[in-house]
Amino acid sequence: MSIKRSPDEADGVPDAAVAALGARLRAVRLRRRETLESLAGRSGLTKSFLSKLERGRASVSVSALLRICSALDVQLAEIMNGPEGRLVRAGGLTRVALGGEGLTEYQLTPGDEHRIQVLLSEIEPGGGSGAEYYTFPVEVEFVHVIKGRLTVSLEGEVHELAQGDALTFVSVPHAFHNPGPEPATVLWVMTPALPRDERSVSR
Questions:
Q1: pTM score, two decimals?
Q2: In whole angstroms, what separates CA 94 from the centre of its chain?
Q3: Multiple choice CATH, 1-203, 3.40.50.700, 2.60.120.10, 3.40.50.970, 3.40.50.1820
Q4: What's the rounded Cα separation, in Å, for the pair 191 and 114?
Q5: pLDDT value at residue 197
């Protein structure tokens, strides 16, 4: 299965999903009456980087994105733009940005589904979650390589997955990247879904 990259990405225009993520982060920051300086201090990231991220001009590792969410006291799921309705057509996939570099990701389950969350990722050669390990607040993660190769690094373990391989693991600190020369298409399943706060966050 091949996922086509948008024309905007090919032309060097800010990636739409990353820009939307930055805009939602900025909206949450302003609603919390948080300055870039204070957010930088509590997240361990620079003010310049956070400014670029909010404008969709910088990518962020999964670990750094989770630190930003923690500093803003907001759940990651609250700033995602999951699909509405139970039926998700192939031609109408909803792009999401959960951090990382060289990733094109889609959520296949509804945004309000709490029991399970399924993501489809295309990972460019060398792309992945970033150098830092991260942990999602879920119980179990499952990854299936549809095409290409994927390296998943867990605590004390490194798993090299090829096309058709699958890995199930308790959500512990981990990272992943595509070590191959071709894009990798990967299916991720998390259970339960990433938690959401009851309070509403604008999208």
A1: 0.77
A2: 13
A3: 2.60.120.10
A4: 8
A5: 62
